[in-house]
């Protein structure tokens, strides 16, 4: 871990106290991570410099995770990294590789769970001029609140053929013989169990509804697969409606389950509704204008994030933040992964991490710098100076490298 000269961000009476030179830990990331991080840091520093003329500056603190950490320390997620995120509250990261099948379970998920960053906040909006596979990408303007600490990401899985799996199956057979009788091929089945709790649901849905109030949105949609998984996903829906009633005074509409309440901010009606997850994946294509804030479980949120990102032009500009609204801890990161086939080619779109940085600046209250990033991004796209993912779909566009796209954003801040 390198050192940084600055002061920590702190939480006082539930509000972030941000010094003029906050220490912000960052993880560069694996695969395309270093290319993307380099471009992003340039943009973030330029935005802060232009907005505050040297009065404010981020003191970046590199912390290690993933392959770089393993190569340097022998550890994939060193304690120093976790300590830095704990101490400095707000950080940012590039993507980290998770092998499929065997090997380590996701470092990304580990960070979210260890720091209890229970909300994965992923806003999805269209930037004018970005090529999209749908006819009206401008109708998509949604904010996903994905539950980040439960569901199968925090679940228990037993691999077929292991002693643990045999024990788990024996336990089910002895204690729940009727359920176990429904397992079609018990001798070769792997077993998975997912937890979904009332507390976990309540804090996530509460944050989503509060966001709708603060940002003057008209609806919050609970997305679940409760018709099949009644006591996990169905319970999420039920607890979600209860949260709206308990914390926001919502009352049922026409006998429920939809309910409404009056926003204390603007006096308008906010509707809480629900949609089953598979139907939602078609609704985001067919009726996107009807959805604003989405509160959902971990796996549904993972699927919906990528699908919605594609609707507005792709995963290259899909940002996010992992946030605990109670402790103030937050780590901002792209929706996409490490795209390893493009590693070290200075090729991919750094937009997702740059816009994650924009979210981070707004989270810190540095809105002037955040606004400059949006201005720069709009300008670079309007000038059709873009990376390969947009260039291949745009007529008459100029192909830029990852670093060049960062520079183009900076140029268009003026
Ligand atoms: N939070 C995190 O750190 C995450 C990590 N991961 C991990 O990343 C690894 C790779 O995952 P994979 O499933 O390949 O998914 P990726 O999101 O890494 O890549 C899938 C495709 O998305 C497009 N893409 C991704 N990033 C960009 C970008 N910056 N600019 C433009 N296009 C981009 C590319 O499409 P095309 O081929 O069309 O050019 C790429 O082939 C896995 O180990 C996975 O676990 C995955 C998601 C999140
Ligand atoms: O951690 C991973 O490897 C995947 C995570 C992911 O897909 C996501 O958070 O959207
Ligand atoms: Mg994902």
UniProtKB/TrEMBL annotation:
Residue positions where Phosphoserine is found in the record: 106
Q: Which UniProt keywords apply?
A: Glyoxylate bypass, Magnesium, Manganese, Metal-binding, NADP, Oxidoreductase, Tricarboxylic acid cycle
Which residue numbers mark the site Critical for catalysis?
A: 153, 225
One GO MF term attached to the UniProt entry: NAD binding
Bound cofactor: record note = Binds 1 Mg(2+) or Mn(2+) ion per subunit.
* Source species, domain of life: Bacteria
Record: residues binding Mg(2+): 302
| Positions of NADP(+) binding | 97, 336-342, 349, 388, 392
For activity, the cofactor(s) needed are: Mn(2+); Mg(2+)
> N6-succinyllysine is carried by which residues?
93
Q: Domain Isopropylmalate dehydrogenase-like spans what residues?
A: 23-409
Q: Per the UniProt entry, what are the Gene Ontology biological process annotations, in alphabetical order?
A: glyoxylate cycle; tricarboxylic acid cycle
SUPFAM superfamilies reported for this sequence: Isocitrate/Isopropylmalate dehydrogenase-like
Q: According to the UniProt entry, which residues carry N6-acetyllysine?
A: 135
Q: Which SMART domains match?
A: Iso_dh
* Positions contributing to D-threo-isocitrate binding: 106, 108, 112, 122, 146
* Enzyme Commission numbers on file: 1.1.1.42
Give the record's family classification.
Belongs to the isocitrate and isopropylmalate dehydrogenases family.
Q: How does it assemble?
A: Homodimer.
Q: What is this protein called?
A: Isocitrate dehydrogenase [NADP]
The organism named in the record is Mucisphaera calidilacus
Q: Which gene is the coding source of this polypeptide chain?
A: icd
């Amino acid at each position: 871990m390198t050192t940084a000269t600055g002061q920590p961000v702190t939480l006082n009476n539930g509000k972030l106290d941000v010094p003029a030179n906050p220490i912000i830990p960052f993880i560069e990331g694996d695969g395309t991570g270093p290319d993307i991080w380099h471009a992003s840091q340039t943009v973030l520093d330029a935005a802060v410099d232009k907005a505050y003329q040297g009065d404010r500056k981020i003191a970046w603190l590199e912390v290690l995770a993933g392959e770089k950490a393993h190569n340097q320390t022998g550890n994939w997620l060193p304690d120093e990294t976790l300590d830095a995120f704990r101490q400095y509250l707000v950080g940012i990261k590039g993507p980290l590789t998770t092998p499929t099948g065997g090997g380590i379970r996701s470092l990304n998920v580990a960070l979210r769970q260890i720091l209890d960053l229970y909300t994965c906040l992923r806003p999805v909006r269209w930037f004018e001029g970005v090529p999209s596979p749908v006819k009206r990408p401008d109708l998509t303007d949604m904010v996903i609140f994905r539950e980040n600490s439960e569901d199968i990401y925090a679940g228990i899985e037993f691999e077929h053929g292991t002693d643990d799996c045999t024990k788990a199956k024996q336990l089910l057979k002895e204690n729940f013989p009727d359920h176990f009788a429904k397992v079609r091929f018990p001798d070769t089945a792997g077993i998975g169990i997912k937890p979904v709790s009332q507390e976990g649901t309540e804090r996530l849905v509460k944050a989503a509804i509060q966001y709708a109030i603060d940002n003057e949105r008209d609806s919050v949609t609970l997305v679940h697969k409760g018709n099949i998984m009644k006591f996990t996903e169905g319970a999420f829906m039920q607890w979600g409606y209860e949260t709206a009633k308990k914390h926001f005074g919502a009352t049922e509409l026409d006998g429920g389950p939809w309910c409404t309440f009056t926003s204390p901010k603007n006096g308008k009606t906010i509707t809480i509704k629900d949609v089953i997850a598979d139907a939602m994946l078609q609704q985001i294509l067919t009726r996107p204008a009807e959805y604003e804030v989405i509160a959902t479980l971990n796996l549904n949120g993972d699927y919906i994030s990528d699908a919605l990102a594609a609707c507005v032009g792709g995963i290259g500009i899909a940002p996010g933040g992992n946030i605990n609204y109670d402790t103030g801890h937050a780590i901002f990161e792209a929706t996409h992964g490490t795209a390893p086939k493009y590693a070290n080619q200075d090729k991919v779109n750094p937009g997702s991490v740059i816009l994650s940085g924009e979210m981070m600046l707004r989270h810190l209250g540095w809105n002037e710098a955040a606004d400059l990033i949006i201005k720069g991004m709009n300008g670079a796209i309007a000038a059709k100076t873009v990376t390969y993912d947009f260039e291949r779909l745009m007529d008459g566009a100029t192909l830029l490298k990852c670093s060049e796209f960062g520079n183009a954003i900076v140029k268009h801040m003026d």
